[in-house]
Amino acid sequence: MKENKSGEKDKGVLYRIAGPVVVAKGLKARMYDVVRVGKEKLMGEVIQITDDQTVIQVYEDTSGIRPGEEVINTGMPLSVELGPGLLTSIYDGIQRPLPVLKEQMGDFIKRGVDAPGLDHKKKWDFKALMKKGDNAKPGDVLGEVEETPGIRHKIMVPPGTSGKLTEISSGKFTVLETVAVIDGNDISMMQKWPVRNPRPNAKKLAPEIPLITGQRIFDVLFPLAKGGTAAIPGPFGAGKTVSQQQLADRIPSSYRSKDRKAIDEQDSPYRKHIKHACCSKRGFCVHRNHNSRIFQGHGLFSRSHG
Fold it and tell me: Which residue among 3, 96, 180, 302 is buried most deeply as judged by most CB within 10 Å?
């Protein structure tokens, strides 16, 4: 919690309530600070500051709270926990693990409850890939954890940390325990990161491997690239969710195979074509003229369509 010079937490009071948006007075805060609203300590985020009034977006139901109730500034931005266990859990919009909350209070989640995004007690088998004495810089892979069969979670040097690796060891650790030491800085498997700050990267790789979905409407008219992004706009009842479910259910089983190298080699002749089709205004014509060659091996078109 953020404290003032006297050691007390920065506090204000509710002045106005309009659904999920509330206004507090007397609160010393910065933009995007996380605050706790009312007696139930509902989580909110500062979205506007005007004179002595602070506008707050509350991420929970505000029914029942009243003007005059206390608002506490945590002094911290909205952040998430990154590390092993992230891919095997289900969260709400503020990274509260729903299975954990269900065990505590059943199917209906009470307001104001909180739980860590990652399991802080579970031990993971950490395999060190660097050794003592190596020079480490941000983004270097210290080791890895097999989070699920076939998915290896890489533990990297966090941004802003560099130097000589003075200690590292393999074994079973929780996400909070130290797995390495870099120039006196303890490194754990978990990083807490503000959601509004993009993660740094050395280079962005352009996707060039096609995602063969098995659905002609996508593969012919709207080709997708593995690792890329796509959106399905449309009004109510247009079939957006049905399309998403169809994609999730009908992706060819070959893409779930462990032999990734063989699959990538098989797709390599089509990468240039898909890349051109995605960027070309005549993408449909490109596919129509070459569909027998591109999709024949995937069973999407018969020879007669050539």
Answer: 180
φ and ψ at residue 261, rounded to 5 degrees: -65, -45
Of 38-47, 215-224, 228-237, 276-285, least confident by mean pLDDT is 276-285
Query: Distance between CA atoms of 48 and 54, rounded to whole angstroms?
Result: 6
Say if residues 34 and 45 touch (Cβ distance below 8 Å): yes
Confidence of residue 278 (pLDDT cuts 50, 70, 90): very low
Q: Is the pTM of this model over 0.85?
A: no
Q: Report the alpha-carbon distance of residue 217 to residue 213 in Å, rounded.
A: 10
Tell me which residue of 54, 152, 52, 206 sits closest to 44, measured CA to CA. 54
The 10s digit of each residue's pLDDT in 184-199 is: 999 999 999 999 999 8
DSSP 247: H
Spatial CA neighbour of 72 closest among 17, 30, 34: 34
The beta strands (E) that lie in the chain are given as: 11-18, 21-25, 33-37, 42-50, 53-58, 70-77, 79-82, 124-128, 135-136, 141-148, 151-156, 163-168, 171-173, 178-182, 185-188, 191-194
- In angstroms, the CA 29 to CA 37 distance is 13
pLDDT tens column, 235-274: 999 999 998 888 877 665 545 544 555 545 555 554 454 4
Q: What DSSP string describes 109-160? A: PPTT----SS-SS--EEEEE-S-TT-EE-TT-EEEEEEEETTEEEEEEPPTT
Identity of the amino acid at 151: I
What is d(CA 250, CA 237) in angstroms, rounded to the nearest whole number?
A: 21
